[in-house]
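hi! just following up on the protien thing from before. the input was this:
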Amino acid sequence: MTSFSPALLPDTLTSALEKVLGPGGLLTQPEDTAAFLTDWRGMFHGKACAVARPANTEGCAETVRLCAEHGIPVVPQGGNTSMVGGATPDDSGRALVIVTSRMNRVREIDPVDNTMSIDAGVTLKAAQDAALDAGLMLPLSISSEGSAEIGGVLATNAGGNNTVRYGNARELVLGLEAVLPDGRVLNLMRKLRKDNTGYALRQLLIGSEGTLAIITGAILQLQPKPKSIETALCAVADARAALKLFAAFRNVEPSAIQAFEFMSGLSMTLVNTLIPDAPLPLANPSPAYVLVELASPRGGDTLRGLMEEVLGKAFEDGLVSDAVLAESEAQRAAFWKLREEHSEAQKRAGTSVKNDVSVPLSAIPEFIDRATSACKTLVPGIRVAPFGHIGDGNIHFNLVQPEGADGAAFLARDHEIMDTVTAIVRELGGSFSAEHGVGQLKSYMMPEWRGGAELDVMRRIKAAIDPAGMMNPGKMLPKAG
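and the predicted 3d structure came back as:
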């Protein structure tokens, strides 16, 4: 049950916050705060003394300063799309949730530097659209981009579909603005590609999941808008064939690959059956699929010829059994819908245990085979539905409850199931979190995976910047002892 705890918010603080935040900026009634106290997956339900909605950096900074003065913890929240409970308060009711959605200005687009200066509350989709309107492209793309906000995207160092070409979020950030736990504003908003003056503090904050500061603004690198795009959906036998197809494209023209996505047959079937207007555009179902997209800023590039050349050879070599090329922007969007709706389709199919893991590319087939076998042994009838960014080694190894099973009972075994999967990931030299972060869900894994000196340094950094532990408590770093 979500609720708020008015007794924990002193009248003097309430009055001060209302003055700082203005009309509608401070929410205290249960019907107003409820939406901010549960995560997107419905796994975590918290309580808060109130929800603050600052409209600018100054308002956010003053809100944090006042909370620090009164000993009130703060939980930053953007679009509330976290897969690991990273933006949900605990159930103590002590924390104030700070929502960044009203901080939604695109401050500047510089076509000479190819940069965008932007508020943290702008959704990723709105940022992409603003860049396109200026004839440029923000290459970061994730399934939740219509809701996910820039601040959260950077706080979790999101990866997404185009990582294979442009890198993770941190590779796109030149400058950063953030509010520290004491309310001071850390202004790192510089457009410089080269700035070798001390520690790279922006990189420390990117991926810190709001445990060190609240990101309020950023300067992002943009790219020329592609003038030539070719997209194909291919039927393949398995991940081994998918990797061989990736190598075939990479060996011919690696710079043309913008995205290379893998989808299992079961996961695709869930999309086709549970998502409206998402039919399979191939003649027959396949054990697995690849979505490959090539792009170039040059309008005259013969990407269609390149696509046909590689796929033609792949047909001859038995790597691809069927394929369809997008003949219009609408068809390209339909192909991408098939990829982007996997999480929603799995949600509609029942409860699921999500494993956002990465392994070396060469180990992906072995990982999928071994993890599939282990999970089917652990939970008979479990539906194994992996998909993801196979071009950069990131697989969302998701596991859907057996048909007709009790969802709550299945979810109660999430640690057991995740540990079964990640044990294999660790043997293969991978990571238990590739792009979703640690949050609340996976913090228990940190001592085993990042223990010793590495975890000790993280805790020392946290203690130095946030000595009172007031910034997004309970996330990422496990309790000591």
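The first strand starts at residue 3 and ends at 4.
The chain has five domains: 3-99, 106-224, 228-342, 350-434, 442-481.
cheers
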